[in-house]
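Input record (one chain):
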Amino acid sequence: MTSATTRLLIVDDDPLVRSALSFMLGGQPDLEVVGEAGDGLEGLARAAELLPDVVLMDIRMPRLNGLDATRELLDRSEPPRVIVLTTFDADEYVVEALAAGADGFLLKDTPPPDVVAAIRKVAEGDPMLSPAVTRSLIRRIAGSNRSTDAVTRLDALTDRERDVALAVGRGLSNAEIATELYLTVPTVKSHVSRVFDKLGATNRVQVALCVHDAGLG
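The corresponding structure, as predicted from the sequence alone:
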């Protein structure tokens, strides 16, 4: 980050959701809502104009949905971090959103303090995936998208990388993994990066799914 304040862009087609998020986040001393957008196309334009640090991205929107907007944002040379807002029960796109490379996933009924904490984590470069979201996602796709080579892929990890992968599968942050495994946060980040490479994962959710598919979740 280049400043102490995290610049936020809220992209959601519901004006009440945008208003509520703006009101809640605008009161935080280290967060600044620099703009809003009502759909994915407007979100892309506003992101290019405002250069936010973090984008809160709804999935279901007219003209361009949040999934495609996230892909386009992350293809840019200096992309913002993206937190996907979702309601798992109603959103058939949530599994596809994993491949878009979002840095975090939040349910829309997440308590305000947890939303603020998640934004701060993502802004600091620590992807956020709460245990509740992990469990909901795994329940949603269980039996329909299982990876047949999950065990083989996990076997390619070293013992320490495997420990880290299992911790990621439980929804732990890098700091929490460091505490549990008696490692430094930079060391954990290095292990997580290698786990991503070896498992062919682009985010922590995919690691959690691999762990689950191998029968270890």
